[in-house]
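Input chain follows. Return structure tokens only.
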Amino acid sequence: MQLPAVPGALAPSLLAIPVAFGINSATTLADSPLVLMLTGVLVLASLFSIIFFVSGGSHFQDPLFCVFVVFSFTSVVDLIISLEEDGYISGFMEAYIREGEPYLRTAHGIMICYWDGILHYGLYLAMIAAIGQRKSYRNLGLFWLGSLMMSIVVFLLGNLIGKYSSDLSPAFLLNLPYILIPIWAGTRLFQQPKALPCLSPEKVAEEQRKRLYQRPQDMGLVLVLLLTAAFTFFRGMVVLDCPADSCFEYIYQREPYLRDPVAYPKVQMLIYMFYVLPFFCLCIYGLVLPGCSWLPDWSLVFAGAVAQAQFSHLGSSLHPRTPFPYQTPEDVWWSFFITNVLYALGPQLLAYRCLRCPAFFLPATPASLHVGKKHQ
């Protein structure tokens, strides 16, 4: 009997948690999914009981606290999976991966487990600590939201259309809650009040009167976003089998990983092309015209999404688990590495700029409008 598939970046082993913690009869448990499920539920219930007893129930006033606790628990298991698949440890998850989620043995599966077990785990701890100290964690939460959603969407779509699609069962529909929970968490995060800067209307009006050529940093960001958008469109055309010679040369001599039948890289490039590319264009618009108050929040979401995507894509392209014909050639290794790192850096710089100097993006108040008209 095959275990239901669960997103590797989220909870590939809520059912396999007992195995991860050293149950000796791992093979027996892997053949008994009900036992794994019930044991995992008992472990989670015990974890919640301990937290509730220690905190006196005060933290549970914020429902996202429960989400972060559960996901931090599964992040540790993801880290165990990635370390075992890379040979650093052994004897924990072998039976579960073999019987339940073989696609986690791919280079992409290993990289998203590393990302979840290290970066997501750190974010969960930081946000749990912020809740305990009654501090705002909105910015961290938005970055986490983008990172997690990108990981889930690419992972699920890649499994549906890639080489492992024949291994999926109707139980794959059980992945639906792992999409709905982050969406619900995202609505909660966007509803949290923003930390508004202490800026006078006159200061806001002064900043918003500046033309683009008077803001050299924003001019540089616009240039970076234009180059990033062009590269996004080019790689999208590459995976769509564009007959141009440049596309043919690129996919065979620069990024052969885009041809990998696991389909994760192809899905990633299409998401970039149809969703991230339009956002880059909106960002350029927001850097040119003042008052785009949506840009700081969404820049954080997309910064998390692109960071996760580039880490997984770059790591998978170079990972030895990727079949040799699809690995990045040694003669273009450095150019490939630098290009993809710079691609990931652009959205991070944009998010940093929006957080550091938000005056240009604040909605214009009546007072600032009055000051602006006065200077015209």
